[in-house]
Amino acid sequence: MPAKKKYLSNGWQRLSKVLAMFFGAYAATAALHIAIAKNVTNDVPILLTSTYTSFILWVGLMVMVFIIKRAWIAWSVLSGIVVFSGLLVLLK
User: What percent of the chain has pLDDT above 90?
Assistant: First the structure.
C-alpha cells in the first residue's frame, strides 16, 4: 500500500534537508561553540570539551532538521543559531 502523496516530500525538499542536516547543523554547532569559547574567561575547558559536546549537538541538530516538516523552517532555525552566535562573538 503506497503512502499518501501529501506526506511525501519532493526531491528538492529532501536534498535541501540533507544539506541542512550536514552543513547547516555543522555551521550552527561550530558557531555556537566559538561564541561560548569567546565569551568565557577561561576558554581552555570549553575548547577541550567541545570535541564531545559538538558531536552531541551536531547529531541533535541533525535530528531536529528531520523532525521539522519544511526545509525552509529548518534552514531558518539553523541560520538563526548562526546569527545569534555571531552577534555574541561581535558583542564581546
Answer: 55
